[in-house]
Every structure is written in C-alpha cells, then in structure tokens.
Write a structure and sequence with these properties.
The chain is α/β, with parallel strands linked by helices. The protein has helices at about 10-25, 35-45, 60-70, 85-95, 105-125, 140-155, 170-180, 200-205, 225, 245-255, 280-285, 290-300, 315-330, 340-345, 355-365, 380-395, 410-430, 435-445, 450-455, and strands at about 5, 25-30, 50, 75-80, 100, 160-165, 190-195, 230-235, 255-260, 265-270, 270-275, 300-305, 335, 370-375. GO terms for molecular function: ATP binding; sequence-specific DNA binding.
Length: about 475
C-alpha cells in the first residue's frame, strides 16, 4: 500500500483529499502547512506527496525542492487554483510529477495519484538516476567504455537517441547522463514511462489537451512535449506505445509541432528526445507492432547497454558502490565484501541485472553482522544456486587448469574457469554459424558488439575457430 502525504492549509480540502485517497486504497497522512509536512516527510517518509502550491510561510515550490533534495524518486503532485496554473507548469519543469487544478475532478485526482504510485514503484525497482551526468555511471569494462565514448560525442547535439537493453541495465541513468552533459542541462528534463500510461490517455499525456476535449477536462493542460521545450524528453518503454499513437509521435519528432487533444492551434517546440526500451524493436517491426519509419527516426544514435553478465568485471566496483550507498542510507558500517562472497557475485547470472544487484546489496546490508559481507550472508539463489553450481564445476575441473591450486584464491579460480567456459561456448556457436558473428551473438543472446569484444579478448576476433575469415553477417 503506497503512502501518500497530503499537505494543504485548507481544512476541508485536506479532509476531502484524504478521504478520496483512502477510498482508493492509499495509506494517507495529512499536514496543515509546508513546515509540518516536511517534518512528517523527513521523519516517516512517503511514497507520494500531494501539496498545495500557495501556502503561508512555506509554499509548494519549497516543499517540492526539499522533497527532491531528500529523495528525487518521490513524485510530488501540485494542487493549484486556475489563476496559478502557469506557476504549476513551472513546478513541473522544476521536477514536480504533475498538477491538479481546483476545483478538482475526482477521476482526475485518482488517475494522477495512481500514475504517481506506479512511477514510485518503478523507481524503487530501478537504479536511481544520479544528476552528476556521466560520473554517476559505474564501470570500467570495454562495453561501458564504449558507452562513455558515445555519450561524450552526442550529448551536446539535438540528435535523437535510442537506448536498448534488458530491464535493470540502467537505461534511465544513461538518459540522465546525456541530458546532464548537454547545454540543455539547466532546462527541463521530463520523463514519462509509456508503459504506465493507459493507451487511451497517452496522447493527452504527450501533447496535452484543451478544456472540454473530453469528460473531465475542466481546464486546458500542457503535455510533456510542451513541458520539455528547450530541454530533454525521455520516453521510457517506448516499445509499449500503440501503433496508432506512433504516427502522431513520428510527426512531432519530424516537424517539431503538434496540436493538443481537442485543439486546433499548432504548437512548436524545441525538444531533444531520448527513448528507451527493453524490447527487440526489430522483432516488433516484423510482427507489425512497431513502425519502421518511427524506429529509424528514433535510432539516429543507438546505444545498446550490456547485461550485467556480459560485464562481470564491473561487479566488484558496482557492489562496492552500493555498499557505500546503503551504509549511508541505512546507517550501517559494513567495510566491504569478502573474496568468497565476491567470487559468488561474479559467478551469478544476474537475470535482473544492476537493479537486482542493488536490491541484493541493500537486503544483505540490513541483516549482515559485519564487518565484511561473506558468502553465508548471500541469499540462496546466489550462494546455493548458480554460485554453488559454478563452484562445483570449478572444483570438478581444477585438474584441467594449469595453476597451482594452493597459490590461487577462489575468486581467481572462478574467474579463470568462467573465462574458459565462456570462450568454449563462443567457439561452439561460431562453429555452428559458420563464423557468422551476428547469428552467433543472437544464439548467445548478447549484442554483436559484446561478442566482438569477447572475441578480441579470447584471440578470436575476425576469425572462425579454424582460422578462416569471419563469415558474412546477415
């Protein structure tokens, strides 16, 4: 049950808001002014904050700034009168999730808070975007170095970027880095999760609507494109957009103009678009669920994020980063990760990628007695599942490794055996495909770029296992 903090100096409105939100299943706490609201937020926290814009002493803008400084993942919804709508729009540009005008429509309130709850839940499962641009990205592997190079080259251009990768690989972090490293960094950075918006409401969310455009449209409202003017618009999960909506999005991207729902006036904007998806858009095109012309318009600059299992060398650095982060957040004093635990972390497959690693480190820190995280502190899927299986394989085949067992630690043994198994698997798939790198990468379920990097590491680059030239790509 999501916790909502309602801050409003009008007693009756505060009571009505609380009653409606409790009816919708939320756990509601109320505060009668901004100071009281922030005190409650800092003491007990909240998943969503609903605050009046104009209040004595401490107004909604100050509440917004304080909440975002404490936890930028918490959506803040602004309540405003008709005469201060412009101020509410400025609040959204400053980071507010959305706004509601007085007198508000109950259905609109429920819809906005429900969207905020989904956004907050998604943020809890994701790696939080750090607004220090590229410096927030953790890793030194060749795959991440390639991503750094792309960011450096294209961040300060208006070109559209399409970020692809499995769920939990940090796509929003890359989008934030692109915005933070551009000359638009002081302009709005507007984010929208397309999967969290019902298909029937997506057009009004993107392009806004005029008063009376549909039932419940009691006032005009700008869409995300307008709010992102001169800045960056990040469309996460863009593969979820319905085909009929893709046509309108394509026009907005190509022409830089659109009309609000129910309006006839054309609005022009200067927006840099960054999109992300964990879907295979090429397969979606073949299935008729995604337009080819929109794909090419989005993928001017493609960035493919590797899965964590493809960049195991970055796991120690990432794990140390999360230990430091949650030491501070949870007031713990864990000094680090023991070699046996680190070896298991590197051997694990990480189907949930960086997001799963972060959640695991947080959970382990909560229960670890310290001073180091050891193998016994890790959960069963890591310690007794994939990790133990990998350890058993290592133990069973130590005789095949040309190393003195007594002189090599578990971490090094696991790394060496993992590399050996990885090389054998790549060789096998290259043999099966006649040296075709693209097809081999598809069978291995990694990107072509990642496979090329691995081939170079193992001395296989540009050759098949028998030394012949690399087969033609499809």
């Amino acid at each position: 049950m999501a916790k909502v903090l309602v801050i409003d100096d009008e007693t009756n409105l505060r009571k009505v808001l609380a009653a409606l939100l409790r009816r919708d299943g939320f756990d509601v706490t109320v505060a009668e002014n901004g100071e009281q609201g922030l005190a409650e937020f800092h003491k007990n926290g909240a998943d969503i904050v609903v605050t009046d814009l104009v209040m004595p002493k401490l107004g909604g803008m100050e509440v917004l700034a304080a909440v975002r400084a404490a936890n930028p993942d918490v959506p803040v919804i602004i309540i405003t009168a008709h005469g201060t709508v412009d101020s509410a729009v400025e609040a959204i540009k400053a980071g507010a999730f959305d706004y509601i005008t007085k007198p508000f429509d109950q259905a609109e309130l429920s819809s906005v808070v429900a969207k905020a709850a989904k956004t907050n839940e998604s943020a809890k499962r994701s790696v939080r975007a750090d607004h220090k641009a590229r410096s927030a990205i953790i890793g030194e592997s060749p795959q991440i170095q390639d991503v750094y190079k792309i960011i450096d080259k294209v961040a300060d251009t208006p070109s559209t970027v399409l970020i692809t990768g499995e769920s939990g690989t940090g796509k929003e972090l890359i989008a934030t880095a692109l915005h933070g490293a551009s000359s638009r960094r002081d302009k709005p950075f507007i984010k929208i999760n397309c999967a969290a918006i019902p298909a029937t409401l997506l057009e009004s969310e993107l392009f806004g609507y005029e008063k009376g455009a549909f039932t419940g449209a009691v006032t005009s409202k700008p869409g995300r494109f307008e709010l992102a003017d001169e800045g960056t618009l990040f469309l996460d999960e863009i593969g979820e957009i319905p085909v009929e909506m893709q046509v309108k999005l394509l026009r907005a991207l190509q022409e830089g103009e659109f009309e609000r729902v129910g309006g006839i006036k054309t609005t022009r904007v200067n927006v840099r678009l960054v999109a992300a998806t964990n879907r295979d858009l090429q397969a979606e095109i073949e299935a008729g669920r995604f337009r080819k012309d929109l794909y090419y318009r989005l993928a001017v600059v493609p960035i493919v994020l590797p899965a964590l299992r493809e960049r195991r060398g970055d796991i120690p650095m990432l794990a140390a980063h999360f230990v430091d982060k949650y030491n501070r957040r949870l007031h713990k004093k864990i000094e680090g990760i023991a070699d046996d635990a680190l070896a298991l972390l590197q051997a694990y497959a990480w189907p949930g990628n960086i997001r799963e690693l972060e959640n695991l480190i947080e959970r382990v820190l909560l229960f670890a007695d310290g001073p180091l995280i050891t193998a016994k502190d890790l959960p069963e899927p890591v310690r007794g599942g994939a990790g133990v299986q990998a350890g058993a394989q290592v133990a069973a085949s130590l005789g095949t490794l040309d190393v003195p067992v007594g002189e090599v630690g578990l971490k090094d043994i696991v790394r060496m055996k993992a590399a050996e198994l990885e090389r054998d698997l790549i060789v096998k798939k290259l043999e099966e495909t006649g040296g075709n790198v693209t097809r081999a990468a598809r069978l291995l379920q990694i990107s072509r770029k990642s496979l090329q990097t691995k081939m170079k590491e193992f001395g296989l680059r540009d050759t098949t296992p028998d030394g012949q030239e690399d087969g033609p790509d499809e």
